[in-house]
Amino acid sequence: MLFATLPSRGAKLAANPLTRSLALGLLAATISGCTGAPPPTDGTGTGPDAHATDQGPADMLVVATGSDINTMIPIVSTSVGDSQVFSHIYLDGVNGVFDCQLNYQPALYESWEWSDDSLQLTLKMRQDIKWSDGEPVTAHDVAFTYEAIGMTDVASPRYAYTRDYAEPATALDDYTVRFSWKNPGDRITRLAQSAAYVIPKHKLASALPNLGDNPLATNPLANGPFRLGKRQAGQYFTLEPNPDFSGPDEWKAHLKLVRFQIVPEYQTRLLKLKKGEVDLMEGIKVKDADELKKSTPNLRLVRRGYRFMDYIAWNLNDKRFQDKQVRTAMAYAVDIDGMIDKLLTGEDGTRYGQQAVGTITPEICSVKADFDPIKQNVETAKKMLADAGWKDTNGNGIIDKDGVEMSFTLLTNKENDRRRQASQLVQAQLKEVGIDMKLDLIEFNAMTKRLQARDFEAVLGGWSAGLFVDPSPFWHSGEEYHFNYPSYANADVDALIDKALATPDPDEAAPIWKEMQQQVYEDQPYMFLWWRDEIVAIDNRFENTDIDISSLTHNLNKWSVPADKVKYRL
């Protein structure tokens, strides 16, 4: 069994102008003429001649996921599950290559140029890319995309991208677009923000601002090497080669089908992986990785790096959580390092997690926080709570203040076993300091809606961190920052974010970002838990696979299976 590791700091991650996101899911289909293990038989297959190519029996990829996709309109999506599909049905604007920071290669944009004062960015587009209805992808689509992102009633989580524009994104001609800002800014961040997935103006201009209800939310126009295929909500969805893909031949898909089936229960996904019914599964628990290395020689395990973090957000509209001393006391009450030992450490002592102090991944070397996190001290927690006026006045074991008990409910998504276990550990440790925390385990999409509506007291969630630095969606005050779930507001933090984003040189911005992270951490709007070095299992028959910090299915169009190893012949 091979256990691959993330490339060293000096190694470049493989790149391609097509993919940059995450993937989940599980495959099932009715297929004739297959070799190896029998295919799933849920009656939802596409037939033996579907998706035929001239490449021979190219096989299919079976991927496992715990939740469904939500919307296929990228600018309004808030789901990692959605982004795993975007990165294959839409071309990236630029392709990110990560080596301690993002570097960029051409994709939909074949070239770009900055003005000397860093206030203007001009991008030249490829002229051969078309939507799957035959219409060209143009600079007018790009300008429209950013017009929609900047409309507050569209409620795009990418709204912050547009907040410093000197003028709207402008199509200079059919294939040239210009972005202009009022103030200089970090070029790495701004290029990434100017390369969002494009949406088709000719289909969506009349739909503004209600994009979420548009038919393209479930039946999107593709311009990448794959298209969204069949889907049954809550059960499965597929990607298939896009027959209308107009890009270079070397960008076309090799696999004939990728199918994701929604299996909420982790143990069920794992069982299917062991039985060979699943080819690709992310989020492997450490204890299961230990066992898989011994028992499943057909799999290889890959570590992706610190892209994913877990947190507990406090709703700061709730009076009980408005006192920073109370939030800090709860951080002292919980043994996060011990939880990492229980949940993210292998039998050989290998740790696959580190305590988090912010939402900027520590993989970005220049801005990695350089202060120590809070460590558990129960006596300090009790004293801080008592000093804040929270004491058990009636002897029932629950602290109270002004007749209000410190009793609240923590939401988390039931599909995620790690979060469920973490919630139970936090619950037990907070009980030791007199805090009664109840648990409410709900489906992921339902939890997301509750977060967006600020309909929660506390929630254990997670982020897939961006590989460029812009924490404003999480920590900048203002109703337009839709990911600021705690409703956190600190004028000093706002000023630091604004100053760092207005600093073109990343080296000059780095100490500002470090100061900003320390200020947010001291305020404790989250109980910051950990960054996870995620473990992924992939069947050995697949070649040319890229599973790295940028994407679970990086370069999916290049993934292939040798003819003598094909398992499913479509």
What does this structure look like?
The chain is α+β, with helices and mostly antiparallel strands. 24% of the residues lie in helices and 23% in strands. It has two domains: 3-279 and 541-565, D-Maltodextrin-Binding Protein, domain 2; 305-532, Dipeptide-binding Protein, domain 3, CATH 3.10.105. It has 14 helices and 22 strands. Strands 1, 2, 9, 10, 11, 12, 13, 14, 17, 18, 19 and 20 form a twelve-stranded mixed β-sheet that branches. It has a four-stranded antiparallel β-sheet with strand order 5-6-8-7, with helices on one face. Strands 3-4 form a two-stranded antiparallel sheet. Helix 13 (491-501) runs antiparallel to helix 14 (506-523).
**Rounded radius of gyration (Å):** 24 Å
Mean pLDDT: 88
Number of helices: 14
Looking at CATH, which topology of the largest domain would you report? Answer: D-Maltodextrin-Binding Protein, domain 2
**Percent of sequence in beta strands:** 15-25%
In total, how many domains does the architecture comprise?
A: 2
Beginning-to-end CA distance, first to last residue: 29 Å
Query: If classified by CATH, what would the architecture of the largest domain be?
Result: 3-Layer(aba) Sandwich
Structural class: alpha+beta
CATH first level of the largest domain: Alpha Beta
Number of strand elements = 22
Let me know the CATH homologous superfamily of the largest domain. Answer: Periplasmic binding protein-like II
Helix content: 10-25%
Unreliable stretches (pLDDT < 50, length at least 5) are 1-55
Shape: globular
Largest sheet: 12 strands, mixed
